[in-house]
UniProtKB/TrEMBL annotation:
<feature type="domain" description="Pyrroline-5-carboxylate reductase catalytic N-terminal">
    <location>
        <begin position="3"/>
        <end position="95"/>
    </location>
</feature>
<comment type="similarity">
    <text>Belongs to the pyrroline-5-carboxylate reductase family.</text>
</comment>
<protein>
    <recommendedName>
        <fullName>Pyrroline-5-carboxylate reductase</fullName>
        <ecNumber>1.5.1.2</ecNumber>
    </recommendedName>
</protein>
<dbReference type="InterPro" id="IPR029036">
    <property type="entry name" value="P5CR_dimer"/>
</dbReference>
<keyword id="KW-0560">Oxidoreductase</keyword>
<feature type="binding site">
    <location>
        <begin position="6"/>
        <end position="11"/>
    </location>
    <ligand>
        <name>NADP(+)</name>
    </ligand>
</feature>
<comment type="function">
    <text>Catalyzes the reduction of 1-pyrroline-5-carboxylate (PCA) to L-proline.</text>
</comment>
<dbReference type="GO" id="GO:0005737">
    <property type="term" value="C:cytoplasm"/>
</dbReference>
<keyword id="KW-0641">Proline biosynthesis</keyword>
<feature type="domain" description="Pyrroline-5-carboxylate reductase dimerisation">
    <location>
        <begin position="159"/>
        <end position="263"/>
    </location>
</feature>
<keyword id="KW-0028">Amino-acid biosynthesis</keyword>
<comment type="pathway">
    <text>Amino-acid biosynthesis; L-proline biosynthesis; L-proline from L-glutamate 5-semialdehyde: step 1/1.</text>
</comment>
<feature type="binding site">
    <location>
        <begin position="67"/>
        <end position="70"/>
    </location>
    <ligand>
        <name>NADP(+)</name>
    </ligand>
</feature>
<dbReference type="Pfam" id="PF14748">
    <property type="entry name" value="P5CR_dimer"/>
</dbReference>
<keyword id="KW-0963">Cytoplasm</keyword>
<dbReference type="GO" id="GO:0055129">
    <property type="term" value="P:L-proline biosynthetic process"/>
</dbReference>
<dbReference type="InterPro" id="IPR008927">
    <property type="entry name" value="6-PGluconate_DH-like_C_sf"/>
</dbReference>
């Protein structure tokens, strides 16, 4: 199975690194990129073949992964369309709906849309996936196998849910970093140095997430276990509740999902 990446940016590199660790052969992976420097780095780091032009890279490929910026995808798809035969096309370009991409590809419908997230760069990503109806179960399994090289995957039957996935997991790392920033700032204001604040904040967030992932109990129960009556945690949570922090977080995520829908409309007008 030959897999060709169009675009060799950070997410493409994360996928390639994960695939090689999972046992994909280096000679089964190709990359098309217009940057001489990027191609040189990819060849040196991964020992895979790179191209400047689409047509020779697509020849003989079974899967094509579109890893370019959303604003570039219309042009790339137009160039790609004449070279497509029966390849599966996987798009990791945020916001571009499958039907719009299919239209740009001249009606080609073997399309899987994926929303990965940046923890894929450390093999702990999560990718939401949607396939057009003409994609077979075997092709979906192949697409899943590629994305599982850098983390977990989940499929949705309704593409509208991809906007929710974008708002939760696609944008989610930024929310986590924002909260960690707040923990660090509070620690420093209370007298710790920056190194101590970073260690406590990162390790606390990592440990709590790991504990939750390994527990059968729901998150509310785990939170309650840390919250003693009249204690420090209860005081902090009461302060957050008084400030309606949870409601504001939910509203922020809803606004992100709304923006995802808007971007889909804007980008799909081409």
């Amino acid at each position: 199975m030959i897999i060709t990446f169009i675009g060799g940016g950070n997410m493409a590199k994360a996928l390639i690194s994960g695939m090689l660790r999972k046992g994909f052969a280096a000679d089964s992976i190709r990359v098309v990129d217009i940057s001489d420097e990027n191609r040189r780095q990819i060849m040196q780091e991964y020992n895979i073949k790179t191209f400047t032009d689409l047509a020779p890279a697509i020849e003989g490929s079974d899967i094509v992964i579109l890893a370019v910026k959303p604003q570039q995808l219309h042009e790339v798809a137009s160039q790609l369309a004449p070279s497509l035969k029966e390849q599966l096309v996987i798009s990791i370009a945020a916001g571009i709906r499958s039907n719009d991409l299919s239209r740009w590809l001249g009606g080609f419908s073997l399309v899987v849309r994926v929303m990965p997230n940046t923890p894929a760069m450390v093999m702990h990503g999560v990718s939401g996936m949607y396939a057009l109806p003409s994609v077979s179960a075997e092709q979906k399994q192949k697409a899943e196998g590629i994305l599982q090289a850098v983390g977990s995957t989940l499929w949705v039957e309704d593409e509208h849910h991809m906007d929710t996935i974008t708002a939760i997991s696609g944008s989610g790392p930024a929310y986590v970093f924002y909260f960690i920033e707040a923990l660090e700032e509070a620690a420093i204001q209370l007298g710790l140095d920056a190194k101590q604040a970073r260690q406590l904040s990162l390790e606390t967030f990592f440990g709590a997430s790991l504990l939750a992932s390994k527990s059968d109990e729901d998150i509310a129960t785990l939170r309650a276990r840390v919250t003693s009556k009249g204690g420090t945690t209860e005081r902090a949570l009461h302060t957050m509740e008084a400030a309606t922090v949870k409601r504001h977080i939910i509203e922020a995520i809803q606004s992100a999902a709304e923006r995802s829908r808007e971007l889909g409309d804007e980008l799909g007008k081409k």
